[in-house]
Amino acid sequence: MIAACNKKDTPPAPDPCLGVNYTVDYFKTESIGTANNGTYTVNSPIGDTISYKLGTGTYQASNTFTNLAPGKYVLPIKNQKGCTDTAQFTIFNYGPKYAAVKQIILGYCGPCHLNGAINGGKNFDTDANIVASWDRIKARAVDNTPSQMPEAPNAPLTPVDKQKITDWVNAGHRQSD
Ligand code: HEC
Question: Is 0.85 topped by the overall pTM?
Answer without folding.
Answer: no
